[in-house]
Amino acid sequence: MKKIILPVALLMASSATFAEQQIEKPLLNNQENTTSIKNSNLDLFGVSRSFGDIIFVDDDTTRQNSAPKRTRVFTGYEYENIKFSKHPGQLLSTFVIADGSTRITDKLSMGYVIRETTIYDTAENNKYVGSGSNRIRRDTFTEIQLLPKYINWVNENFSYGVELGYEHIGDAKDSAEKQMYHIRPEINLGFGRNFLHLNTEIGWIDRADRGAYIETEPLYLYRLTDNFNMGAKFYYHAEDNDFRWRESAVRPLVQYRFANNTYLELRWEVGSIRTHDGSGYNYNNYALYTEIPFNPTFSLMADLQFKDQKAHKGNEWSWGDKEDIFAKVGFIVNF
Hints:
- The chain contains 2 helices and 16 strands.
- By secondary structure, it is mostly beta strands.
- The chain has a 16-stranded antiparallel beta sheet that branches.
- It is globular, with a radius of gyration of 20 Å.
- About 35% of the residues are buried.
- Mean pLDDT is about 80; it is low at about 1-35, about 45-50 and about 55-65.
């Protein structure tokens, strides 16, 4: 579930705030209808690549004139519990030490991810992994990512950039040690109440089933009011290896910021996964993401998902239909 667990939501930027008012102001010479996206944190990624694609500027002049925060980092815990219809269930327990980025200059940032995951099995089929004797520890592995990024703002509503990536996943019982490398160019466009993010990631997976891959996840958002967005992501991933993994999805979403700056995003993902022999899954994923700020530095973050996957052309290696419960909870720190 590469980058789906990490859900939905790119993606991409997540710390800029909407205006505090709940209704739109009257338009004056159409100036209010022109939204600058430069002051949003589109050039921050890490946790923001996948969650909270907030693009609108902060209208509070006090915060605008204060010193800009250069680091945004998430630390917390991920829980994923998978029930298979034809195989013992699995639980993935992950401690996220750091997932974020630090702005080095106005154009350069460094992203980083450090995680440790433990996998558990259950002794019986058709069950979620429980506790005690029903939970069998299988393996533990670490994941480290380094993600330097360059971004250049041509004007207030147009930027382009490129991210380089290195990922190392440690040796596990059922999976050999893996190295991944990628380059990810992107374009960000703001025009009136519309926002468009385009990207294409091209990479290489170095492991037993080594091969190249390509991935894209464009995002479109429309600003209905100062604190309400609606839009969609479109996702495609293809690997050129023995399994020839293909995944595609559409992810409609809505975003809302309350008067106290609590942010809420609701997503619905409809997608499919196919491998070399035509087998795979068709899935629906229902997700809720929220950030609740305590102050300008600390926020509570929660991402909750339920993913229902139906097997397509199952074979002797298939594990049948599966249901996936996912939760990611922790703190985002800005400084």
